[in-house]
Input
Amino acid sequence: MSTTTTVLNHIVVGLEAADAVISDPKVSAVTKGAATLVRLIAAITEDRSTEEAIAILERVRDHGTSPITSTELDAQLAATLAKAHRDE
Amino acid sequence: MQLRLLPLFLVLGLTACSSCVSSNSALKAHSHAAETLDDLANDAKETVLELRQRALDDAVARATSEGLRGPELDALVTQAAGDFDKGPAVSSVNAFIHAKDLYVRAVLASASKDKPTWDTVKPMLRDVIAAYNAMRDALGRPDKMPAIPDAISQLIGGSS
Output
Protein backbone atom coordinates (compact mmCIF):
# COMPACT_ATOMS: atom_id res chain seq x y z
CA MET A 1 0.00 0.00 0.00
CA SER A 2 1.47 3.37 -1.00
CA THR A 3 1.91 6.22 1.45
CA THR A 4 -0.79 8.20 -0.37
CA THR A 5 -3.30 5.36 -0.08
CA THR A 6 -2.47 4.92 3.62
CA VAL A 7 -2.96 8.64 4.26
CA LEU A 8 -6.23 8.69 2.29
CA ASN A 9 -7.50 5.68 4.25
CA HIS A 10 -6.72 7.46 7.51
CA ILE A 11 -8.56 10.55 6.27
CA VAL A 12 -11.66 8.47 5.45
CA VAL A 13 -11.50 6.80 8.89
CA GLY A 14 -11.09 10.25 10.50
CA LEU A 15 -14.10 11.60 8.62
CA GLU A 16 -16.25 8.63 9.63
CA ALA A 17 -15.18 8.94 13.29
CA ALA A 18 -15.91 12.68 13.28
CA ASP A 19 -19.31 12.05 11.66
CA ALA A 20 -20.13 9.48 14.36
CA VAL A 21 -19.30 12.02 17.10
CA ILE A 22 -21.32 14.80 15.40
CA SER A 23 -24.42 12.60 15.03
CA ASP A 24 -24.25 11.23 18.62
CA PRO A 25 -27.00 12.98 20.64
CA LYS A 26 -25.19 12.27 23.93
CA VAL A 27 -22.08 14.24 22.96
CA SER A 28 -21.74 17.82 24.25
CA ALA A 29 -21.90 20.86 21.96
CA VAL A 30 -18.20 21.63 22.58
CA THR A 31 -17.12 18.13 21.52
CA LYS A 32 -19.38 18.34 18.49
CA GLY A 33 -17.80 21.68 17.60
CA ALA A 34 -14.32 20.17 17.87
CA ALA A 35 -15.39 17.16 15.77
CA THR A 36 -16.85 19.51 13.16
CA LEU A 37 -13.54 21.35 12.93
CA VAL A 38 -11.62 18.06 12.64
CA ARG A 39 -14.05 16.97 9.96
CA LEU A 40 -13.59 20.21 8.06
CA ILE A 41 -9.78 20.00 8.21
CA ALA A 42 -9.78 16.29 7.24
CA ALA A 43 -12.28 16.88 4.46
CA ILE A 44 -10.26 19.71 2.93
CA THR A 45 -7.36 17.29 2.43
CA GLU A 46 -9.68 14.98 0.48
CA ASP A 47 -9.29 14.94 -3.27
CA ARG A 48 -12.00 17.03 -4.94
CA SER A 49 -11.94 18.59 -8.37
CA THR A 50 -13.08 22.13 -9.23
CA GLU A 51 -16.15 20.72 -11.00
CA GLU A 52 -17.07 18.62 -7.95
CA ALA A 53 -16.59 21.62 -5.65
CA ILE A 54 -18.86 23.79 -7.82
CA ALA A 55 -21.47 21.02 -8.07
CA ILE A 56 -21.50 20.74 -4.26
CA LEU A 57 -21.83 24.51 -3.84
CA GLU A 58 -24.72 24.53 -6.34
CA ARG A 59 -26.38 21.63 -4.51
CA VAL A 60 -26.12 23.51 -1.19
CA ARG A 61 -27.48 26.66 -2.88
CA ASP A 62 -30.43 24.90 -4.57
CA HIS A 63 -31.27 22.10 -2.14
CA GLY A 64 -29.60 23.10 1.12
CA THR A 65 -31.31 23.77 4.44
CA SER A 66 -34.06 26.33 3.96
CA PRO A 67 -35.24 28.82 6.62
CA ILE A 68 -38.08 27.84 8.96
CA THR A 69 -41.30 29.04 7.33
CA SER A 70 -44.62 30.00 8.89
CA THR A 71 -46.13 27.03 6.99
CA GLU A 72 -43.83 24.63 8.88
CA LEU A 73 -44.67 26.30 12.19
CA ASP A 74 -48.43 26.22 11.45
CA ALA A 75 -48.21 22.54 10.46
CA GLN A 76 -46.41 21.67 13.71
CA LEU A 77 -49.07 23.48 15.76
CA ALA A 78 -51.92 21.84 13.80
CA ALA A 79 -50.41 18.36 14.27
CA THR A 80 -49.97 18.95 18.02
CA LEU A 81 -53.57 20.17 18.40
CA ALA A 82 -54.90 17.24 16.35
CA LYS A 83 -53.00 14.78 18.56
CA ALA A 84 -54.22 16.52 21.72
CA HIS A 85 -57.85 16.25 20.53
CA ARG A 86 -57.41 12.58 19.67
CA ASP A 87 -56.05 11.93 23.18
CA GLU A 88 -58.92 13.82 24.89
CA MET B 1 -29.61 30.77 21.39
CA GLN B 2 -28.08 34.02 20.10
CA LEU B 3 -24.86 33.39 22.01
CA ARG B 4 -24.71 29.77 20.88
CA LEU B 5 -25.01 30.89 17.27
CA LEU B 6 -22.40 33.65 17.60
CA PRO B 7 -19.38 31.39 16.84
CA LEU B 8 -21.17 30.20 13.72
CA PHE B 9 -21.59 33.78 12.54
CA LEU B 10 -17.91 34.45 13.29
CA VAL B 11 -16.82 31.39 11.29
CA LEU B 12 -19.16 32.43 8.48
CA GLY B 13 -17.84 36.00 8.47
CA LEU B 14 -14.19 34.96 8.52
CA THR B 15 -14.71 32.42 5.77
CA ALA B 16 -16.65 34.91 3.67
CA CYS B 17 -13.85 37.46 4.08
CA SER B 18 -11.42 35.01 2.54
CA SER B 19 -13.71 34.16 -0.35
CA CYS B 20 -11.32 35.23 -3.09
CA VAL B 21 -11.61 32.03 -5.05
CA SER B 22 -8.41 32.18 -7.03
CA SER B 23 -7.33 28.55 -6.88
CA ASN B 24 -8.80 25.09 -6.89
CA SER B 25 -7.78 24.50 -3.26
CA ALA B 26 -9.63 27.63 -2.12
CA LEU B 27 -12.76 26.59 -4.00
CA LYS B 28 -12.44 23.09 -2.57
CA ALA B 29 -12.16 24.53 0.95
CA HIS B 30 -15.21 26.70 0.34
CA SER B 31 -17.22 23.70 -0.85
CA HIS B 32 -16.35 21.86 2.36
CA ALA B 33 -17.15 24.94 4.45
CA ALA B 34 -20.51 25.29 2.66
CA GLU B 35 -21.36 21.63 3.34
CA THR B 36 -20.40 22.00 7.00
CA LEU B 37 -22.40 25.21 7.38
CA ASP B 38 -25.40 23.54 5.76
CA ASP B 39 -25.11 20.59 8.18
CA LEU B 40 -24.91 23.01 11.11
CA ALA B 41 -27.90 24.95 9.78
CA ASN B 42 -29.88 21.72 9.47
CA ASP B 43 -28.94 20.67 13.04
CA ALA B 44 -29.88 24.11 14.37
CA LYS B 45 -33.22 24.05 12.54
CA GLU B 46 -34.05 20.57 13.86
CA THR B 47 -33.08 21.61 17.39
CA VAL B 48 -35.33 24.68 17.31
CA LEU B 49 -38.27 22.69 15.94
CA GLU B 50 -37.73 20.05 18.66
CA LEU B 51 -37.64 22.77 21.35
CA ARG B 52 -40.86 24.26 19.95
CA GLN B 53 -42.49 20.82 19.92
CA ARG B 54 -41.50 20.39 23.57
CA ALA B 55 -43.02 23.79 24.43
CA LEU B 56 -46.26 22.81 22.66
CA ASP B 57 -46.36 19.40 24.40
CA ASP B 58 -45.83 21.12 27.76
CA ALA B 59 -48.74 23.48 26.98
CA VAL B 60 -50.98 20.51 26.11
CA ALA B 61 -50.02 18.78 29.38
CA ARG B 62 -50.72 21.98 31.33
CA ALA B 63 -54.10 22.46 29.64
CA THR B 64 -55.04 18.83 30.29
CA SER B 65 -54.04 19.05 33.95
CA GLU B 66 -56.20 22.19 34.29
CA GLY B 67 -59.13 20.31 32.77
CA LEU B 68 -59.24 22.48 29.63
CA ARG B 69 -60.72 20.95 26.48
CA GLY B 70 -61.69 21.96 22.93
CA PRO B 71 -61.29 25.66 22.08
CA GLU B 72 -59.82 26.47 25.51
CA LEU B 73 -57.06 23.90 25.00
CA ASP B 74 -56.49 25.22 21.46
CA ALA B 75 -56.18 28.79 22.75
CA LEU B 76 -53.62 27.87 25.42
CA VAL B 77 -51.45 25.81 23.02
CA THR B 78 -51.70 28.45 20.27
CA GLN B 79 -50.63 31.07 22.82
CA ALA B 80 -47.60 28.91 23.74
CA ALA B 81 -46.70 28.62 20.04
CA GLY B 82 -47.00 32.40 19.62
CA ASP B 83 -44.81 33.03 22.66
CA PHE B 84 -42.14 30.67 21.32
CA ASP B 85 -42.25 32.27 17.86
CA LYS B 86 -41.86 35.75 19.36
CA GLY B 87 -38.63 34.60 21.06
CA PRO B 88 -35.20 34.67 19.40
CA ALA B 89 -34.87 30.96 18.50
CA VAL B 90 -36.65 30.80 15.13
CA SER B 91 -35.35 34.18 13.95
CA SER B 92 -31.75 33.38 14.96
CA VAL B 93 -31.73 30.13 13.03
CA ASN B 94 -33.29 31.82 10.02
CA ALA B 95 -30.69 34.61 10.14
CA PHE B 96 -27.95 31.99 10.12
CA ILE B 97 -29.54 30.10 7.21
CA HIS B 98 -29.90 33.29 5.13
CA ALA B 99 -26.27 34.20 5.88
CA LYS B 100 -25.20 30.70 4.80
CA ASP B 101 -27.13 31.10 1.53
CA LEU B 102 -25.47 34.47 0.97
CA TYR B 103 -22.02 32.95 1.54
CA VAL B 104 -22.66 30.12 -0.94
CA ARG B 105 -23.98 32.52 -3.60
CA ALA B 106 -20.98 34.84 -3.07
CA VAL B 107 -18.50 31.98 -3.51
CA LEU B 108 -20.27 30.75 -6.66
CA ALA B 109 -20.36 34.29 -8.08
CA SER B 110 -16.66 34.80 -7.41
CA ALA B 111 -15.84 31.39 -8.92
CA SER B 112 -17.68 32.26 -12.12
CA LYS B 113 -15.64 33.59 -15.02
CA ASP B 114 -18.54 35.82 -16.09
CA LYS B 115 -19.06 39.29 -14.68
CA PRO B 116 -21.92 39.25 -12.13
CA THR B 117 -25.25 40.40 -13.54
CA TRP B 118 -28.25 41.93 -11.76
CA ASP B 119 -29.81 38.45 -11.74
CA THR B 120 -26.75 37.16 -9.84
CA VAL B 121 -26.69 40.04 -7.37
CA LYS B 122 -30.44 40.23 -6.70
CA PRO B 123 -30.74 36.94 -4.73
CA MET B 124 -27.66 37.93 -2.73
CA LEU B 125 -29.26 41.24 -1.77
CA ARG B 126 -32.42 39.33 -0.91
CA ASP B 127 -30.35 37.10 1.43
CA VAL B 128 -28.72 40.15 3.04
CA ILE B 129 -32.10 41.77 3.73
CA ALA B 130 -33.67 38.53 4.93
CA ALA B 131 -30.72 37.88 7.28
CA TYR B 132 -30.90 41.46 8.57
CA ASN B 133 -34.65 41.25 9.15
CA ALA B 134 -34.32 37.89 10.93
CA MET B 135 -31.49 39.24 13.12
CA ARG B 136 -33.61 42.32 13.87
CA ASP B 137 -36.47 40.06 15.00
CA ALA B 138 -34.09 37.89 17.05
CA LEU B 139 -32.55 40.83 18.90
CA GLY B 140 -35.95 42.43 19.48
CA ARG B 141 -34.42 45.91 19.31
CA PRO B 142 -36.07 47.69 16.35
CA ASP B 143 -34.79 51.00 17.77
CA LYS B 144 -31.19 49.86 17.23
CA MET B 145 -31.79 48.22 13.85
CA PRO B 146 -34.05 50.32 11.62
CA ALA B 147 -36.43 48.61 9.20
CA ILE B 148 -35.32 48.25 5.58
CA PRO B 149 -37.37 50.70 3.48
CA ASP B 150 -40.13 49.00 1.46
CA ALA B 151 -38.79 50.56 -1.75
CA ILE B 152 -35.54 48.58 -1.43
CA SER B 153 -37.35 45.33 -0.66
CA GLN B 154 -39.60 45.86 -3.68
CA LEU B 155 -36.60 46.63 -5.90
CA ILE B 156 -35.08 43.21 -5.22
CA GLY B 157 -38.35 41.34 -5.29
CA GLY B 158 -39.29 41.27 -1.62
CA SER B 159 -37.65 39.57 1.33
CA SER B 160 -38.78 36.69 3.49
